[in-house]
From TrEMBL:
Organism: Aristolochia fimbriata (White veined hardy Dutchman's pipe vine)
Domain F-box: 45-88
Domain Tubby C-terminal, first and last residues per copy: 106-370
Family from the record: Belongs to the TUB family.
InterPro entries named in the record: F-box-like_dom_sf, F-box_dom, Tubby-like_C, Tubby_C, Tubby_C_CS
Domain of life, per lineage: Eukaryota
Pfam families per the UniProt record, alphabetical: F-box-like, Tub
Protein name as annotated: Tubby-like F-box protein 3
Length: 391
């Protein structure tokens, strides 16, 4: 009986350590007790000569320029460790190549001179939104799934949880990448990133952060809320009957990014260890906590240098008796929510880059909306109404 009780007690301790993950030291000891075979190192493809492997991957990267054939490039990165490293060196960021390859591409700057066409499918019953990359020039196609969001109503605000997995949209998932939070009146919105968008980014205190600090919760619960953008709707003299004015402050992107040769912060990869991406005081040492407290929030100079966007003012059409914008044929349904974003004059002297449409959003169907990034509107295209009702 004594031996059996002892084995049971030891088993209970192992279970608590395995699922509780009370500290880094306990977790490391428990992991070392069960050796895991690294399949990436022992793959038979790892012995291919690097020169031959690089030549094959370069040709594959050049030939598979769009989805769905581009999935072969992603598959090569999952063969073994050597294949992954060479593939990451060959595949360029969307800003340079204009291609979306890995999930991290969704958090990197887009190309400057080409168009990225996406669309959103809304499910009213489940309050979910799915973002797809358009594979053809048609307004409706199957597309490639990119992101999913789920609407969560709260007493004082509304959250939209954003995930890489359409089947798992929870904050405790490893595919959680951020959220969008609106105030009670839905006039002000804040975009939060689960990972720091750049070095020195300050985490915002929220209810989830406080709970994570007070309780010994699972480390899979994301505690990082890094504000990356603030969106606000302004009232005009016509009230709700006129076109709305929208202003977006991109906290993590400097105003110089839209200038020729400008650089925007670029995240290269997701953290390999989920613990390294969270700002849980329970997992940090005293020196780390003191350094984070000393850093504090962004300074006033940094906020003044942030990129500011505004919606392009529509034109009044006398014949249609409505406000109109040039969407280049990508919008077919009139809606007050249709908009185009351009750089605000607050970023400096007005130039050619301030006339370029950086993002446009428009309605195509009842639950289908198009999102186009980096659009250069031309006067030869027809105008689409922003709102059909006269004011």
């Amino acid at each position: 009986m004594k031996g059996e009780s002892g084995s049971i007690s030891r088993k209970g301790i192992d279970v608590k350590i395995g699922y509780g993950l009370r500290s880094r030291s306990h977790r490391v000891v428990h992991d070392n007790a069960t050796p895991v075979i690294d399949g990436l190192k022992q793959s038979c493809w790892a012995n291919m000569p690097p020169e031959l492997l690089r030549d094959v991957l370069v040709r594959l990267e050049a030939s598979e320029s769009s989805w769905p054939p581009r999935k072969h490039v992603v598959a090569c990165a999952g063969v073994c460790r050597s294949w992954r490293e060479i593939t990451k060196e060959i595949v360029k960021t969307p800003e340079i190549s204009g291609k979306l390859t890995f999930p991290i591409s969704l958090k990197q700057p887009g190309p400057r001179d080409t168009l990225v066409q996406c669309f959103i499918k809304r499910n009213r019953a489940t309050q979910t939104y799915h973002l797809f990359l358009g594979l053809t020039q048609a307004l409706t196609d199957n597309g490639k799934f990119l992101l999913a969001a789920r609407k969560c109503r709260r007493p004082t605000c509304t959250d939209y949880i954003i995930s890489l997995d359409a089947d798992d949209m929870s904050k405790g998932s490893s595919t959680y990448i951020g959220k969008l939070r609106s105030n009670f009146l839905a006039t002000k919105f804040t975009v939060y990133d689960a990972q720091p968008p750049h070095a020195g980014a300050a985490v915002s205190k929220s209810r989830s952060t406080r709970l994570a600090a007070l309780r010994q919760v699972s480390p899979r619960v994301p505690a990082g809320n890094y504000p990356v953008a603030h969106i606000a709707y302004e009232l005009n003299v016509l009230g709700s009957r006129g076109p709305r004015r929208m202003q977006c402050v991109m906290d993590s992107i400097p105003a110089s990014a839209i200038q020729p040769g400008g650089i925007a912060p670029t995240q290269t990869e997701f953290p390999l260890n989920i613990l390294d991406s969270f700002s849980l005081p329970f997992f940090r040492s005293k020196s780390t906590r003191s350094e984070s407290q000393m850093s504090g929030p962004l300074t006033g100079g940094q906020r003044e240098g942030a990129l500011v966007l505004k919606n392009k003012a529509p034109r009044w059409h006398e014949q249609l008796q409505c406000w109109c914008l040039n969407f280049r044929g990508r919008v077919t349904v009139a809606s007050v929510k249709n908009f185009q974003l351009v750089a605000s004059p607050e970023n400096g002297p007005a130039g050619q880059e301030h006339e370029k449409v950086l993002l446009q959003f428009g309605k195509v169907g009842k639950d289908l909306l198009h999102v186009n990034e980096l659009v250069q509107a031309s006067p030869s295209c027809r105008l689409e109404p922003v709102r059909c009702t006269s004011v």
